[in-house]
Design brief:
- By secondary structure, this protein is mostly helical.
- Helix content is 66%, strand content 10%.
- Strands 1-2-3 form a three-stranded mixed sheet.
- A hairpin with a 2-residue loop joins β1 and β2.
- It is elongated and about 90 Å long.
Length: 324
């Protein structure tokens, strides 16, 4: 994901949510609707989340240091994970609490035109934000489905904004439904039920975001297409004859580490092997520009070099006497 594209979607969502939050709070003050209060807190939480994403993007741009030699690219994953926590606690749990209180202690809605008018305005504003996120995502999604895009995107910002905006739109519809049913039936319990539904929705979205960002924090490999390009770039058919095993790891959304043990011909000189490795690194970077950190280890191919389990971590699992 390009930083500019992600930032554009985040800023659009931030502006929309700040405007919507103010409008919702005003509507809550005049109407006393619990759905409006839950939606107000939801918009404030979303605004804070977008601010977190912007901070994470800024911090990720810091240069590598001796203490952090691979840089700070994963800052974006950390702040995206914080977003899921905020959405779960401040958004979802508060909405559940407010919905429960409204059902337990219902009171009639006042000045109903305030919440209805603000909700219609919020739906329109949120739609523009959602449209921006979709437009920016389509440039990167390619032929993947939306589910695949959210699950496999290495840059967290666009999936986070997409899910937040989707949750906001559905939440607004639920709030409008709750208010509408309360007005139609004269029973404000429906307002509390709408609030409970908003809370459940936000918690589900938060859990999805937490699961995806946790995977990124743990460290994900390159995608299948990038892996194929790297494998094709490594082997030149002359000095480098095959890949014995290879590992890739995202140090950040736009920075990939490649480590591989490569098979070379047994009669090549050290100078020839060094030249072949340098050439392979150039080919890898040409094929996959985000492959910025590359370590290639030459070896003579054999079953011993391949290892008993090529899919295991290099070096194999720790032996019982090595574990601590």
């Amino acid at each position: 994901m390009s930083a500019s594209g992600g930032t554009k979607a985040i800023v659009a969502a931030l502006v929309a949510n700040l405007a919507i939050a103010v409008a919702k709070f005003v509507a809550f003050v005049f109407s006393g609707s619990s759905s409006m209060l839950a939606e107000s807190v939801h918009s404030v939480a979303d605004s804070g989340n977008q601010a977190l994403l912007l901070v994470g993007g800024k911090k990720a741009q810091r240069k590598a240091t001796p203490e952090h030699p691979f840089g700070y690219g994963r800052e974006r994953y950390i702040y995206a994970f914080l977003v899921s926590i905020v959405l779960f606690s401040v958004g979802g749990m508060f909405a559940l609490y407010e919905g429960y209180e409204k059902i337990k202690h219902p009171h009639e809605l006042e000045h109903w035109y305030w919440p209805v008018g603000v909700l219609v305005f919020a739906i329109i504003a949120e739609s523009f934000s959602f449209r921006t996120a979709i437009k920016e995502s389509n440039a990167l999604r390619g032929r993947r489905s939306w589910k695949e895009f959210v699950r496999h995107a290495k840059a967290p910002e666009l999936p986070v904004v997409l899910l937040e905006d989707l949750g906001a739109l559905v939440g607004l519809i639920l709030a409008l439904g709750g208010v509408g049913l309360a007005l139609a039936t004269g029973d404000s319990v429906w307002d509390g039920i709408g609030t409970l539904c908003i809370g459940v929705l936000l918690i589900l979205i938060a859990l999805v975001l937490a699961a995806e960002t946790k995977s990124l924090l743990l460290g994900e490999a390159a995608g299948a297409e990038e892996t194929r390009k790297i494998e094709a770039a490594v082997v030149d058919g002359d000095t480098v004859t095959r890949i014995i095993h290879m590992r890739t790891l995202h140090l950040g959304p736009e920075e990939l580490l490649v480590a591989a043990k490569i098979a070379v011909r047994h009669d090549e000189t050290a100078a020839e092997i060094a030249t072949a490795i340098d050439a392979a690194e150039v080919r890898i970077r040409d094929a996959v520009p985000i492959a910025r950190v590359i370590y290639l280890e030459p070896d003579i191919y054999s079953e011993a070099a391949k290892g008993s389990d090529p899919e295991a971590s290099p070096g194999g699992p720790a032996q019982p006497d090595e574990a601590h």
